[in-house]
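Shipment paperwork, digital attachment
Item: protein structure file
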Amino acid sequence: MRRLDDYRDIVGDKVLSEIYRKASGCYGKRIVHVNSTYYGGGVAEILDCLVPLMNNVGLDADWRMLRGTPDLFTITKKFHNALQGDSINLSAIKKQLYVAANEDFSTYCHIEHDGVIVHDPQPLPLVQFYRKRQPWIWRCHIDLTDPNKHLWQYVKGFILKYDMVIFSSDKYTKKDLPVQQRVIHPAIDPLSLKNRELSEKDILKYVKKAGIPNDKPTITQVSRMDPWKDPEGLLEIYKRVRQEVDCRLVYCYDMALDDPQGVEVYSRVYRKARKFVQTGDVVFVVGKHQILVNALQRFSTLLVQNSIREGFCLAVTEGLWKGKPMVATNVGGIPLQIKDGREGFLVEPGDKERFARRIIDILKNPSLAKQMGKKAKERARKNFLITRLLSDYLDLLSEIVK
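Attachment content:
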């Protein structure tokens, strides 16, 4: 288990000292986080590091996962999409299954903590099945810029029972939500297998194992196979790029337990990319192993994120930390991380021609890529590491948990 002292060489003594000072006001406070999966997404990766660090600095932190059936996760995936603006048939049976799964979970998940932090829509209704003896916080990691109005009115009924809502960006705060709201940016763990430093030998070893040759520039997108990540649009962008630069596109993806849509999206993208797969110009890599993702990000010439909607996008944060230039869409939390023309380029979603042109600009200008990569790593170090997130949570808990 990593301890706060392990980050000293990365963030410095002043940061650690401030965290220890803040933690002194939270000693012994019992905090529980609740989400829906232990791997396959940014929330699980954050909690995997954040909870042990909370314990290390003096809190009594716990992590529970909602047990759900495939039916539940099919429904909550539709909820996730609709909260990001998609349409939905909000039937009575969907509501019933959603609420029933949370009620069932509450019968054996005993919550007697001093504070409860519930992550994302899946376990949102839990709050109504407990006698509240402590503050409940809903931590929303998704893009709520323009949610489906029908679904928003429905889930808001649960949110009203919470004492506070945390969003990833100011853009997601809601004027029609009479609950205290706060913005806390997510963060990555620089010492995790996915983000720690790797030798050149190890990088090449893992990339070779994944079947990726080292004969041409490599463009990589690390993401779920999700319509909001627009992997099909990325393929069209790649076709434009390769007209000017001989390069390879890598889709590094994973299938989370609570995301049943991934197989369908993967199959659709693979069919469209088949001829490029056969020539080795497009490669699909299952990123189940964090060290493989790490190696691939470090190996790539540049990283891309072609999202249509995005809560924050820790894949962008990871890329910055690896010192890689990024080309990404100007949505959600991405512009909080990338300043256009500094750490990379931002492009409006759907503008495939401009996206391709920005990739070409970087591929044809190695000095620009190096300059952007250096600034990217420093921006991640200063703003988006787990120590900053821990500090933000300590501020919050010292304020709300008595």
